[in-house]
């Protein structure tokens, strides 16, 4: 049994367990909503690579540790306070975090054995990155999925450009720009989840995966599917039509104008949300989602690695929109980011274009070998 679990480095932030043919990974940082640290990313990668070569392991499941008496969280994203500190300190670990996280995302999407993501509660940012590539994405009525990166002056990464771009119509633009959280019905309807299991069934499901007989990958999948149920209703077609009407506009300025001209609360709320975001990074985000629709996952991850480098370094950490956004949300907590430029009219198209120029020569990209 010990040969099936390699030595882990995250000091208990990742727990590994083997039950029959099933390898279980538990994100064990519940007080931080299981936000990913670099050691956690390294441990997940080590486990998945090790188990890929072990015939005894036929399937893998990943879940988040719970907090007693508190709402569930699968994974709330990456450790943004670390991003802030590392950027200001010029710490090379910041680049290592994103390179290794994106490699992990790619590994999950192409994993040779069934990978099951138990997406209980909050599933945001980096949590989407380690779940969207799963063969079976399991949700319940507590699941809340989002890519909220524009709220901190970033863009939807971890393959978000690619998987949001696969959503129907212009749902991807709406989710990417606003950071809107969605529930199980919409997630299933829009291709961001696979199966619904009632929250009341969750403890029995997890217990069965941990301790019940799991002799084969087929049995692991059956353990989930025997508890599957009809999901709560998704958004009505009128909502999708409204998303397409506004977020299918050709430019960010046209999207904002379309929302401003509408006379309904939904459009007003979306418009107000966008006005709070970094105008520069909204432009970068819109361009990413639309470019990524024509890219492979590997090419999208390479592009996102370029973008995230520029997000922290193009203007230096002191003038980074992302550093400022994290400061306002998680460091000073004044919720008053000072975006530069402050309005869309002041955004220089050349600066947006600069984000999409790779800082690495051909063949030297840190993700150049992703297939």
TrEMBL record:
Residues 23-356 form the Enoyl-CoA hydratase/isomerase domain. Pfam families: ECH_2. Keywords: Hydrolase. PANTHER family: 3-HYDROXYISOBUTYRYL-COA HYDROLASE, 3-HYDROXYISOBUTYRYL-COA HYDROLASE-RELATED. This is Enoyl-CoA hydratase/isomerase family protein. It comes from Pelomonas cellulosilytica.
